[in-house]
Amino acid sequence: MVKTARVRQPKTLSTPERILQAAEKLFSERGVDGVSLREITSSSGVNSASLHYHFGSKIAVLEKIFELRAQPIADNRMALLSQVKLNRQGIPELEDVLRAFLQPAFESLNTKQGAAFTLLRARLSFEREEIRRRVLDKTFNDSSRLALDALTKALPGLAPAELHWRFHFLLGSMVYTMAMPGRIESLTEKAVDSSDGPTALEQLIRFAAAGFRAP
């Protein structure tokens, strides 16, 4: 008797996974405040009792999405920042610090949910301060402070206020570039492709380094 090969069935998503997947897509399209719990349950095919049982609230759903998507980015940043080499004076190379901070975020674009989460991260900039602080502070503060410490070592002559402003501009450039709004493609008739992640990363490092070194 000839044995037939067993066809492996795709893994069925659990109820929490379905809720998170639906919420992430909706949040990335319309923002957190623009999406209701009813829409999340309808899109995920679950009832409201299931959502409340697994998460309790819409903000708890958002926090779980960030735990799954953003925490690996933050953890990778901290690992890379801790590995940046120092010269004999204990000073790291500025470009090495910038790469350690930026690279994990750009690499996340290659993951299955990378595009949706990147748009969600960009939209979060326009949410209520309470939401921004509750989610972003919890996820990214430790890795961002480690980056600031490394930048301080790399630029010992730069005043703290200047350093903080330039880091602020770095964050804005990173989020905008990763969101790929298509403006530079339109202005250059597609001569520049901001969806080319490796090129975008290298260009941003070069741009940011010049900004941090400016008088």
Walk me through what this model shows.
69% of the residues lie in helices and 0% in strands. By secondary structure, it is mainly α. Helix 4 packs parallel to helix 7 (129-154). It is globular and about 60 Å long. The model is unreliable at 1-10 (pLDDT under 50).
**Residues in β-strands, percent:** under 5%
Helix and strand composition category: mainly alpha
Q: What order do the SSEs take from the amino end to the carboxyl end, as H and E?
A: HHHHHHHHHH
Number of helices: 10
Q: How many strands?
A: 0
Global mean pLDDT:
91
Residue share in helices? 55-70%
The end-to-end distance, rounded to whole angstroms, is: 80 Å
Q: Specify the overall morphology.
A: globular
**Largest sheet geometry:** none
| Structural Rg | 20 Å
Spans with pLDDT under 50 lasting ≥5 residues?
1-10
Provide a short characterization of the protein structure:
This protein is mostly helical and 215 residues long.
